[in-house]
Amino acid sequence: MTEKKKKSKKSTIFGLKDVVLVIVILILALSVHFMGVSRVSVRNDFMLDSMKPGENVLLCRVSYGLYNPFSGEMTGIFWSNPKRGDIILFRSEKDGKKKIMRILGLPGEKVSYRDGIIFINSNLINDPYFRNRSFHKLNAIKLPENIYFTAGDNRELDEFGGNFEIVSREQILGKILKK
C-alpha cells in the first residue's frame, strides 16, 4: 500500500513539473512577442514603394528601449537612439494612429527644404530619400532634444503635407527590421 502512495505522489509531482514548464515557456513566448519582436501590418501608403498596405513587417520593440506591453508605450528607459534612415513605428500625435515612416532628421539638427531636396544643417545629404521631395508646407525647423523628423517614402503624398511628421522619442514604439 505504501508503494502505491509513493508512485502516485511521484506521478503527481512529475505532472506539476510539466505544468510549471509549460507556463514558463508560455510566459517566455509571450514576453518575446509583446516586448521583443512581433509582426505588424502596414496600414497606410506613406511608405509606398518600400512597403505596401497590407504587407506584414517585423517590428523590434526593444531596439531603442524598454517597451511596456500593458500600456502599449515605451517606459522611458532607453539604451540606444534611432539613426537616420531607420524605419520606425510610432504613435502619431496628430491623430493617435500608429504610423510607419523613415527617420530623416535627428535631434539638434536644422531641417530645411529647397528645390525638391531636404537639407540637414544646410548640407545636402547623399541619400535617395532626401531628393525629389515636394513638401509645400515645410518650413525650416531646428529639432529640439529627443525630437525626430520623419517622412514616408511615398513622394506623391508630399505635396499634400501629410507625408512627414515631427516625432518625439517617447512616441517611437520600435524599429522595423525587415520589409
Structural overview:
By secondary structure, the chain is α+β, with helices and mostly antiparallel strands. It has one domain (2-178): Umud Fragment, subunit A (Ribbon), CATH 2.10.109.10. It contains one helix and 13 strands. A seven-stranded antiparallel sheet has the order 1-2-13-5-6-11-12. The chain has a four-stranded antiparallel sheet with strand order 9-8-7-10, with no helix packed on it. A two-stranded antiparallel ribbon has the order 3-4. Strand 8 (117-120) and strand 9 form a beta hairpin. The longest helix is centred in the first third of the chain and has 35 residues, at 2-36. The model has no long low-confidence stretch (mean pLDDT 76).
